[in-house]
Structures are given as C-alpha cells and as structure tokens.
Amino acid sequence: MQKILVIDDEPSMRELLAIMLRKEGFEVLLADSRARAAAVLAAGPVPMVITDVKLPDGDGIEILRHVKAASPETIVIVMTAFGSTQTAVAALKLGAHDYLIKPFDIEELRIVVGNALEKQRLQEENLRLKAEFRTRHGLDRMVGVSPSMVALFELVRSVAPTGSTVLVTGESGTGKELVAKAIHALSPRRDASFVSVNCAALSESLLESELFGHMKGAFTDAHQTKKGLFEVAHRGTLFLDEVGETPMAMQVKLLRALQEKRIRRVGGTEEIEVDVRLIAATNRPLESLVQERRFREDLFYRLNVIPIHVPPLRSRQEDIPLLAEHFLSRFGREMGKAVAKISSEAMEKLTRYSWPGNVRELENVVERAVALETSNVVLPERLPQEMLSPSAAAVPPLTEGFSLDEHLRAVEADLVRRALEQGGGDRAAACRLLGISPRSLRYLLEKHRSSLSA
C-alpha cells in the first residue's frame, strides 16, 4: 500500500481525507502540525504529502521546502483557503505538484491524486526504459533517445565490426569524437590504441611529424627518433579531428598513407607498414571545400566511405533532459556534491534554449550549475543569464512531426505563467499584463492546468 501523509489542523478535514484515501487503497498517515509532520517524515520516506498551508506552528510552505530538500521525488499537494492564489503560485514554484483551494470537491482531490501518481509512474518507467536502452547499446558515454540518435547508434553498431574508413560530420560540440570512440570500442580493434589528433591545431610541418614521426636530426629540434601516430595506432584506430583544416600539401601525403598503408618518417628512407582504421571528423562541409579547391577530391572520396552525421542538439530536444541528468550525476560525483535533481523550472529553461554550442555547451552549463548550487536541487538562478530571458526560448526545427498547435499552446502557457509570477499571483494584475479579461484568464488557467502545475 502506498503511503500518503495528510497534514491539517482541522480534525474533520483530516478524517474526511483519511476516509476517502483509504477507500482508494492508500495507507494514510495523519499529522495536525508542522512538528508532528516532521516526526512522521523522519521515520521514513513518504511518496506523497498533502498539506494545508496554515498550521498552528508554521506553514505548509516550509514543509514543502523540507520535503523537496530531503526527497525531491516526493509528490506534494498543498491545500489553501479561497483567494490565496499567491501562496499557491509560490508553492508551485517551489516544486509542489498541484494545489487545491478550500472548500474543494472530494472528486477533485481524487483526480489530482490520481494524476500525480500516474505522472510519477510514467517518469519512473521512462527512466527505467532509458537506462535499459543505454545498457543495451553500450555506446561509451553517448546519451540520447531521439529518433535521430537511435538511428545513429544503430549505424555505429553496424559499422564498428568492419574496417571501413568513416567520416563523421556535425557542428562543433555535438560529440563527433565520442562517435569515433564508440566505433573503436565496439570493433575488433578495441584492445589496441585509439589515437586522436586535431588537424587544425598544428602547422603543416608539425602535423607531418605528429602523424608520420621523424628521424633523429631530421630538423633542428629532432634530438631523437620519434614514432608517428600512424605507428602508435598500429592495429588500432586513428582519429583525425577537423580534417578539413589539413593543409593541401599534407593532404597528398595523407592520401598516399591511406592508399599504400605505408608511411615514411620525416628525414627517413625506410617505409613502415601500418594497419590502421581511420576515422575522420569535420564541422565543415568537405564537398564545398572540394568545389573551392581547398580539399582534394580524391582524399574526400577516400575518407567518405561511410558517412555518419551527428545532429545538433537543437534538433533533438527530447535528449536534453537525459543529457542534463547524465552530466548532473557525473559532476555531482566528481565534485562530491549531493545535487540530486534539476528543478522542473530549470529543466524547462534548458529544454527551450537553442544550444548553439551543442552538447559541449550543455555540459559546461551543468558543470557550472553544480559548482554554484548550495542545495540539492539545481535552481534556475544557477543557469547563465542568457537562458533566463524570454528570447532564450527556441522554436523547434521545422521538420516533419513539428506541430504548430503544440508550440503555440506551450507559448501561451508560458506567457500565463510569467504573467502570474510577475503579478505576484494577483489575477487582476496578470489580466492587465496579458491584456485579457478575467474570464479569459480563468479559461486559460483551466486549459493549461497541467502545464502550470508541472
């Protein structure tokens, strides 16, 4: 039997709620004060709390704070007197699932409790399925459940056992190197080295020495013979990041190494056989560079045997919560901080942001939030200022499956929420801010009830 703690100083209200909830099959715990409620909660976790706002020794808002700090997953429903909308809005901002205005209909309470439990069940089921999905795919640190990422995972698993050259494309920060590492980890070469080099970070001479190695005395600072990365990656994988930045003269030598599977160290005469699986990555369209005669066409076709495109984060918004939770868990462990959750309001800001820096930017934002957070829940205040402004809300990409109705509904709900917050919960003030009548506001509140209480 699932436990529900009911907190109210009126004996008749406690008894009424206890009878109704027990009929629904719940184990009901009762408390008539904040102190008694604290004692009940100290005895063990309670999945749901229904509390009155006004109590003889405090208020239900403090109970809400305490519960959410100790157990963020606990559902809290607050009861408040008629006309105390400001208190109800404050409770929702602090993490309450919903609120009920006294006097309320018992059937209304039954619906609110049922909806809350169903939402909790779906969240738990969603987390379980996501965990199973990640375990089944086992793709290193790659995280995602969007259709585009599921297709990418399947392509990686298909390509990994082969020895074919792969060209990974995508914007900066999307995780192209993670794709390369996943291919290596799932390949027969997994026990050999994975070696990476950023072609944009080195001059032509340094890149040649880095890739092919050099003999002692080949140039001024060559005090000893050095193996190149092709040799280091023998029987493993060599990852060339930003391959589009490779100088033209170096492209000729790279093409020869791929075709002949032999390299020659700088200053040397001996050819060395190398068995390397090459994976290249670029954030620039190589086809355009070929047309501009800045990238060799024959090298492009040698690299582009199996193309894999990593989609930008803005086109797979359903992956943002999962990625944010993944980074939250990681940085919490690394920093030794018990930050267990991202608040619903902060998560909404993350989901609606356009992420020009893609996954790398999200990773940095979560790291910053964990470092600054002093509670166990990441609040919106810990996010960068640009994510808190109304302009941070991103319109989803206009691809197949986009719903104008759903997007306009979300925008409408957000405007209602902001008007209530800006007006301090005063409906008349919210009406003035929105330029609508009280009747229209009541309609919108009912229409977006679930969104406003999420």
Supply the number of helical segments: 19
Number of domains: 4
- What top-tier CATH class of the largest domain fits best? Alpha Beta
The CATH topology of the largest domain is given as: Rossmann fold
**The CATH homologous superfamily of the largest domain:** P-loop containing nucleotide triphosphate hydrolases
Give the CA-CA distance, first to last residue. 25 Å
Fraction of residues in helix:
40-55%
| Relative strand content | 15-25%
Quick one: overall form?
A: elongated
Strand order of the largest sheet: 2-1-3-6-7
Oligomer: single chain
Strand elements, count: 18
**Architecture of the largest domain in CATH?**
3-Layer(aba) Sandwich
Provide the structure class: alpha/beta
Structure, explained:
The protein is an alpha/beta fold and about 450 residues long. It folds into four domains: about 5-125, Rossmann fold (3-Layer(aba) Sandwich), CATH 3.40.50.2300; about 145-310, Rossmann fold, CATH 3.40.50.300; about 315-390, Helicase, Ruva Protein, domain 3 (Orthogonal Bundle), CATH 1.10.8; about 405-454, Arc Repressor Mutant, subunit A (Orthogonal Bundle). It has 19 helices and 18 strands. The protein has helices at about 10-25, 35-40, 60-70, 85-95, 105-135, 145-160, 175-185, 205-210, 230, 250-260, 285-290, 295-305, 320-335, 345-350, 360-370, 405-420, 425-435, 440-445, 450-454; strands spanning about 5, 25-30, 50, 55, 60, 75-80, 100, 165-170, 195-200, 215, 225, 235-240, 260-265, 270-275, 275-280, 305-310, 340, 375-380. It has a five-stranded parallel sheet, with helices on both faces. A five-stranded parallel sheet has the order 9-12-15-8-16. Strands 4-5 form a two-stranded antiparallel ribbon. Strand 6 (about 75-80), helix 4 and strand 7 (about 100) form a beta-alpha-beta unit. About 30% of the residues are buried. Residues about 135-140 have low confidence and may be disordered.
